[in-house]
Specification:
about 290 residues, ABC transporter involved in vitamin B12 uptake, BtuC, about 0% strand
């Protein structure tokens, strides 16, 4: 029973990371209609920036907000300098752009910081929760992720700027008619997605260590979580991340072993596409003809 509780809590911790990155994927999907394959590599670059600041001696809680600001600016820059130029391009062209950004960002990380594995410190390293069921870092991940997701929920639900961003993503033409500056709202969405991805990178790096391929598997897990919850449902992405994190951990412990976790993620994606393409909480797309 103790093992089951340990793995469930560890799965919630992993799921909170997947939920943050899945929410970033859903935010970009709702504005472009495509999966941002470079989302993990954007998070990777932000994590390397944080590691650099820590390496020169800045404290973690000073590095964290600096990195968040840098991630936001970087996300906005990607939209303004690259994505905006292809907003009316054919769908295949945008897919190629996302894949190109993935390769460019990954190569840049390796070129600047090298391909050696680096240790990334946890701000709660060496601390104890007083319980054998959950470690200090896992508890830290859960608290930080849920706090961030709670802030975003309040922002999008109860603030004028958040409502304007939702309107711009849902129906750009109607949003323009009521005076919303759609391009600016979409750029802000990219900035927030950059923050979400970078938080996921900072939280997973102390567990997996820091190297250029670190976010590849995490992005796949987040994609599976987004598919499970529904690509057009932000709340579904969060729920899907938590559900997938627990299922993945329990399956790895009791059924398939840790070596087949990536296969489990692919199996989840295929199963959802076959049985419920819109995800557990997604809504079917409706188009006027």
């Amino acid at each position: 029973m103790d093992l089951f509780l340990q793995q469930t809590l560890a799965g919630i911790s992993n799921g909170a990371i997947y939920a943050a990155l899945a929410l970033a994927l859903v935010m970009i999907f709702n504005t472009t209609g495509h999966i941002n394959f470079a989302q993990g590599e954007m998070a990777l670059l932000g994590t390397y920036v944080a590691w650099t600041l820590l390496a020169i001696g800045l404290p973690y809680w000073a590095v964290f907000p600096i990195t968040m600001v840098a991630a936001f600016v970087f996300g906005v820059a990607v939209d303004r300098l690259v994505i905006r130029r292809f907003r009316n391009a054919p769908h295949l062209a945008l897919v190629v752009v996302f894949v190109g950004l993935l390769l460019a960002f990954n190569a840049s990380a390796g070129w600047i910081w090298g391909y050696t594995i680096k240790e990334f410190p946890s701000p709660v390293g060496g601390m104890s929760t007083g319980s054998a069921l959950i470690g200090a870092h896992d508890l830290f991940v859960i608290l930080v992720s849920f706090a961030l997701l709670g802030v975003l929920f309040v922002f999008f639900r109860f603030t004028l700027l958040g409502l304007a961003m939702r309107a711009a993503a849902r129906n750009p033409a109607s949003a323009r008619l009521i005076g919303i500056r759609v391009d600016r709202m979409l750029a802000l969405g990219w900035g927030l997605a950059g923050i979400l991805g970078t938080v996921a990178g900072l939280l997973i790096a102390p567990v997996t260590y820091l190297e250029p391929g670190m976010m590849m598997s995490v992005l796949l897990y987040a994609f599976a979580a987004a598919m499970l919850g529904g690509l057009n449902s932000p709340a579904g992405a969060v729920a899907g991340g938590l559900i997938f994190g627990v299922l993945e951990n329990l399956a790895g412990t009791y059924v398939i072993g840790n070596d087949l976790k990536l296969s489990f993620a692919l199996a989840v994606v295929v199963t959802v596409l076959v049985i419920r393409p819109n995800g557990l909480f997604g809504r079917p797309g409706v188009k006027r003809v």
